[in-house]
Amino acid sequence: MPKLRVLIVDDEEQFRAPIRAVLASRGLEVMEAGTATQMDALLSRFEIDILLLDVNLPGESGLQIANRLKQTRNIEIIMLSAFGEVEHRVNGLISGADYYLPKPVDIRELLAVIECCKRQTYDDIAAPASWQFDAAKWLLITPDGVEHSLSKSELNIVNALISMAGKTVTREQLYAAMGIPDYPPESRSLDVHITRIRRRFTTDSYAIPIITVRNVGYLFNDAVKIHR
Fold first, then answer.
1. The OmpR/PhoB-type domain covers which part of the protein (predicted)?
2. pLDDT tens digits, residue range 101-112?
3. Of 35, 58, 74, 182, which is least surrounded by CB within 10 A?
């Protein structure tokens, strides 16, 4: 299995150095850039699997970079920023980031996110059977070709996630899809439903690719065929 190649884009060398050392010790191939220009030069020469991208860069910002790269490249983007408020995280995810981690970065969380990216990258290489969804018939078809009837709550949640596959669906949007536009902040109803869906559609052969975007919502992180 080929080494995963990670590119760290941050204008502070003292920030890049310890992360580079940890990732290299885990068997990853690590490259560095301090600006968008340096990043583009590396991207023109190498295939990068994961981009660790700072938001505040000189010149072109991380948000702008994520937006343009996602239009032309299949690359996992982990955005890093000292701004950790929900509004900033949402802006980062909308711009094209797959994950958004606040600075200072907890290396354990970063490694866990990279592991998720690694699984996604190797799954893409293996080209697994796709998921299929038929909203009219209330069916989710798993990669083994089996048709599963959905309950009303499952249908509403899965439909909201799959209709925006690859993009984060906020908790507000998912609660609205469930018919609960006004919900108390402490409500965990959505999370309970997601847990049940994950449990139902996870086997030794596949796992439903619903990813948690912390404090924001969830996303369906795989290609899916939608029956009209």
1. 123-222
2. 988 888 889 998
3. 182
Backbone angles phi, psi at 180, to 5 degrees: -125, 70
Residue type, 195: T
Reading the block at residue 142, the tokens are 């798993």
Q: Tell me the CATH number for domain 5-126.
A: 3.40.50.2300
Beta 99-102 vs 210-213: how paired, if at all? unpaired
pLDDT, one tens digit per residue, over 19-71 is 999 999 988 999 999 999 999 999 988 888 899 999 989 889 999 999 888 87
Residue 36 burial (C-beta neighbours within 10 Å; 0-12, 13-18, 19+): buried
Nearest one of 192, 197, 190, 198 to 217, comparing CA atoms: 190
At 196 the three-state DSSP class reads helix
The rounded distance, in Å, linking the Cα atoms of 3 and 228 is 40
Chain centroid offset of residue 133 CA:
20
| Kind of pairing between the strands at 147-149 and 139-141 | antiparallel
In angstroms, the CA 140 to CA 70 distance is 27
Question: Would you state the pLDDT for residue 178?
Answer: 92
pTM of the model: 0.54
- Residue 87: phi, psi to the nearest 5? -60, -40
- Ranges for all domains in the chain classified under CATH 3.40.50.2300: 5-126
- Helices and strands in the chain, H and E counts: 8, 12
* Inter-residue contact 42 to 66 (CB < 8 Å): no
